[in-house]
Design brief:
two-stranded antiparallel sheet
């Protein structure tokens, strides 16, 4: 009995310790291990948002860049921050594993933060202070000053490429999908994961932003750097408690093999019985702790990669499971595309929304609110909505849908997309009101501060947090959940890629709209003087874009097929193995 309990205590999902030995669930993983990961994330998000939240104002006030240039520099950098995880996911899945990729990337991340703190601290690394109303009259930053500052930012971006796709996956790996209790905990993990992210973000958007605006940029950037160092130390302390997955080879290579093999055999007919397709023996999957996936009728052309033609070349013949893994990653791409536009909306929080705040009355008595602090309301709204969603909405919906998540992940994402339409309509109407006040008080030409409280922007910030509670949490969980077991890091990087492309799309749209609306002698929609600009038109354009994107999303989900539950597949695999072994033993007995 004790031996059976010992066997049952080992994880069944293929996780190991750093030396590659099987692990006991009583010794490693679970919420004990996750606590280190979640605390790390709170500190790391404090560090990241401590830089990004107020970056547009540093570029404007200290490096003397205009509205479009500073906003685009922010979104291009943030875009890079979210795109580099593709490289990090590749290195983790193909070579180093998630843990070591994360550790090495953390060193690069800390190095970038240290250099960035130096660049804002040393007088020789920034242009002289300028308090003129028109920043075009201020001295521009030198090539060396810009090289050091942006060199630090992009070093930091390379570091985050290795940490972002792997840290959330390391957290999710601490729960065994084949253990009912742990699987139930995993359903809540992503909600509390986002909770920790936005807890760190809230501190950055309130305390750190206030320090940067009122005390100084040296301390304002020094504290996030210290926070990052603390977060890495916390993660390393938890090392004895983590479960790990061995690198399973490059997911890109395995996907390329399937696509090329299918193209090379495009004239070969598919057999009527899917069981005639090439597949590895059941024992092979069981021995490696991997999962067999049965052939599906979707994307039938790729099934040709598993048609037997006599050649065993891996670029000519792939197993059914390898084909199905490729299909799973490709099936998610239309959903990924549908998340680009809402990611573009998120990019406005730390750029145009903050710039709007600088034109409004920010006083509460003698206290002056930093414009970037309003992003804290996104965080507060997010925190409240995640808790309400997890504790009340999910149990309520479970009674009607019988779905353990309450509603499907795609339905949750769809609700978030509707919120983005509402947000941009409200933002457009609010900006129209702000511009009318500027005209009434004769503040259009001089770009002066309006006698209008900054809290008129509050609804768009609060609703953005509500949208995140639906869309961003569901997006992260969807791409992790729907990715094949051997490509989880790549699946998670889909989520970050969405934010990256959204930021690049923001840069493209801002530059394009600014250029087009200035043609033929027109004033233009986006100028350095926001009181002369027409951000209300720009936000209305975003509302229309979100509506069209929602229609595209509805079409996509109509045809999307969720992948089968892995635990069910494993159960079937175990039962089939038992039957095979029973048949084999019966054959041996009959021979005797």
């Amino acid at each position: 009995m004790a031996v059976e309990e010992g066997i049952d205590d080992y994880t069944q999902d293929g996780t190991v310790d750093l030396k590659g030995n099987p692990v006991r669930r009583s010794k490693r993983g679970g919420w004990t291990a996750c606590s280190f990961v979640v605390v790390y994330e709170a500190f790391e998000r404090m560090a990241y948002y401590g830089i990004s939240s107020n970056l547009v104002l540093y570029l404007t006030r200290k490096l003397h860049q205009g509205t479009v240039k500073s906003a685009n520099n922010v979104t291009n950098w943030v875009g890079t921050i979210w795109i580099t995880p593709i490289l990090g996911a590749y290195v983790a899945d193909a070579h180093l594993g998630r843990y070591w990729t994360f550790v090495i990337a953390s060193v690069i991340y800390v190095s970038g933060m240290l250099l960035l703190t130096l660049s804002v601290s040393l007088p020789g690394l920034k242009p002289p202070a300028c308090h003129l109303a028109n920043i075009d009259d201020c001295k521009e930053a030198s090539t060396l000053q810009l090289a050091v500052f942006f060199g630090a930012l992009y070093t930091l971006a390379v570091g985050t490429g290795g940490t972002k796709p792997n840290i959330s996956t390391i957290g999710a790996d601490q729960f065994d999908d084949f253990h009912p209790k742990e699987k139930a905990h995993k359903l809540s993990f992503f909600n509390w994961w986002m909770f920790s992210i936005f807890f760190g973000t809230l501190f950055a958007n309130t305390v750190l932003v206030y320090i940067q605006d009122n005390v100084g940029w040296t301390l304002g950037y020094g504290l996030p750097t210290l926070g990052l160092v603390i977060s890495v130390v916390i993660f390393l302390v938890g090392t004895p408690y983590y479960r790990h997955r061995m690198p399973a080879g490059s997911p890109f290579t395995r996907m390329a093999m399937v696509i090329i093999a299918a193209i090379r055999k495009w004239k070969v007919p598919l057999p009527s019985d899917p069981k005639q397709l090439y597949e590895l023996e059941l024992e092979e999957y069981a021995r490696k702790g991997k999962f067999r996936i049965d052939s599906t009728p979707t994307l039938r052309f790729l099934n040709k990669a598993a048609v037997k033609t006599g050649s065993m070349d891996p670029w000519m013949l792939c197993s059914v499971t390898q084909v199905e893994e490729t299909k799973q990653m490709l099936r998610m791409i239309p959903v990924l595309v549908a998340t680009f536009v809402p990611s573009t909306m998120i990019a406005q929080i730390n750029t145009l929304f903050v710039k709007q705040g600088t034109t409004l009355d920010r006083h509460i008595g003698s206290f002056k609110i930093p414009p970037a602090s309003l992003a804290g309301f996104v965080t507060i709204s997010m925190l409240v909505c995640v808790v309400l969603y997890d504790r009340f909405f999910v149990p309520l919906m479970q009674k009607f849908t019988k779905n353990p998540r309450g509603i499907t992940l795609l339905q949750r994402m769809g609700i978030g997309l509707v919120f983005h339409i509402i947000i941009m309509v409200i933002a457009s109407l609010t900006e129209r009101h702000r511009l009318s006040v500027a005209r009434e008080h004769g503040l259009v030409e001089n770009g002066g501060q309006l006698p209008l409280t900054i809290f008129i922007l509050l609804p768009q910030f609060v609703l953005m947090g509500t949208a995140d509670a639906f869309l961003e949490v569901a997006k992260l969980e969807f791409f992790y959940d729907q990715a094949p077991e051997s490509m989880k890091s790549l699946g998670t990087s889909y989520s970050t890629t969405s934010l990256g492309i959204g930021n690049f799309l923001s840069s493209f749209l801002l530059s394009t709209v600014s250029h087009i609306t200035r043609k033929h002698g027109h004033q233009g929609w986006i100028l350095n003087n926001l009181n002369k600009s027409h951000l209300d038109y720009y936000y209305a354009f975003f509302a229309i874009l979100n509506f069209l994107n929602l229609i595209f999303f509805l079409v996509v989900i109509k045809f999307y097929v969720y992948k089968a539950e892995v635990s069910d597949s494993m159960h079937v695999l175990t039962e089939e193995l038992k039957v095979m072994r029973l048949n084999a033993s019966n054959q041996e007995r009959s021979r005797e």
